[in-house]
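Q: My labmate handed me this sequence with no annotations at all. I'd like to see what the chain might look like in three dimensions before we decide whether it's worth expressing. Could you predict it?
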Amino acid sequence: MSGFDPARVDQALFPDGRWKTNFLVNLGFASLDGHRPRGPRLEFDLAVRFG
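A: Here is what I predict for the chain of 51 residues:
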């Protein structure tokens, strides 16, 4: 997951400084009663360009 503040995560979860945050992973399942349908996505050819 990008867009997070690793220093802030380190301060909250690893205050002794022995560990450092590299990345975040979100694991789990969506709630069935509050889950919205997936939003529209770009077609592969529109989103990816090789060159």
